[in-house]
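Our consortium's second objective concerns turning raw sequence data into structural hypotheses that experimental partners can test. To show how far this objective has progressed, the report includes one record in full. It was chosen at random from the queue rather than selected for favorable results. The single chain below, 143 residues long, was entered without modification.
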Amino acid sequence: MKLVVQRVKNARLSVDNKLVSEIGKGLAVYVGVAAGDTFASADFLAEKLVKLRIFEDENGKMNLSVKDVSGEILSISQFTLLADVSHGNRPGFSGAERPERANEIYEYFSNKIASLGVPVKKGVFGADMEILQTNDGPVTILY
């Protein structure tokens, strides 16, 4: 699995000009499921994510997690994170998990985050989504 984690002040996700999900302070998390990923890898990353200390404490140090600041997570499936651009100019996606299995792991990952005590909103798997977010920092972490 690959994650792109961005600290946000807010984020909104729409499909066909209809609002699907919206969060305030928290994390916008773009999730790419690779071929061969397992529920165990989703568990591991969900636990790392909710403990990731990238919010500032009273001294201005990145020392607090999304859970510590009562933040939310917007979980967005994005298979293009698995793009292979090592040959030519057109990305290849053979490293991405097939859609049915990828959706299963993405849903599991999102539900695992919620079970760890952080509110989660989701995108629509496989849809053409429009995401508007106000980055905070910016702070971007890659897993």
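The partners drew two points from this record. The two ends are 8 Å apart (CA to CA). Strands lie at 2-15, 18-23, 26-32, 55-56, 62-64, 72-77, 120-122, 129-142. Both points have been shared with the crystallography group to help prioritize constructs.
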